[in-house]
Specification:
- The protein is mainly α and about 120 residues long.
- It has one domain.
- The protein is built from 5 helices and no strands.
- Helix 1 packs antiparallel against helix 2.
- The longest helix has 28 residues.
- It is globular, with a radius of gyration of 16 Å.
- The chain starts with a helix and ends with a helix.
């Protein structure tokens, strides 16, 4: 990887992390809840964006640079599997196992569906 590409991926990752911080804060402010809606929204929207980028690269021959910088950098900094896993465990610790199962299952289903929709959008746009 060239130094310029490395720097672009790092910058995109930092911007993704900043965007996650902003979105997380806004969701928490607008929808205070014990259920981890903020991380859910971040991961679903990040999966949608990654699907769009992948669809554009595969369907239209967009430069793989887009996939590397936006997909790996921005989406990698924006989305967060580890936080979703920790929040699932916290729901169990709060004696809310049904909510934990619902959160884990809905996260997998919604992020997969969002990525699929994004893939179609990226392919068609």
């Amino acid at each position: 990887m060239s130094p310029g590409l490395f720097a672009a991926v790092c910058l995109a990752g930092a911007l993704g992390a900043l965007a996650r911080f902003v979105v997380d804060g806004e969701v928490r402010r607008r929808r205070p809840s014990a259920f981890p809606w903020a991380t859910f929204v971040v991961n679903v929207t990040g999966s949608l964006l990654l699907g769009v980028v992948t669809g554009a690269v595969v369907g239209h021959g967009e430069p793989s640079l887009l996939r590397t910088v936006v997909g790996t950098g921005f989406c990698g900094g924006y989305t967060t599997f580890s936080t979703a896993a920790v929040e699932t465990v916290r729901l169990v610790q709060r004696r809310a196992p049904a909510a934990a199962v619902a959160y884990a299952a809905s996260t997998v289903a919604a992020t997969t569906a969002a990525a699929g929709v994004g893939l179609l959008l990226g392919w068609w746009l």
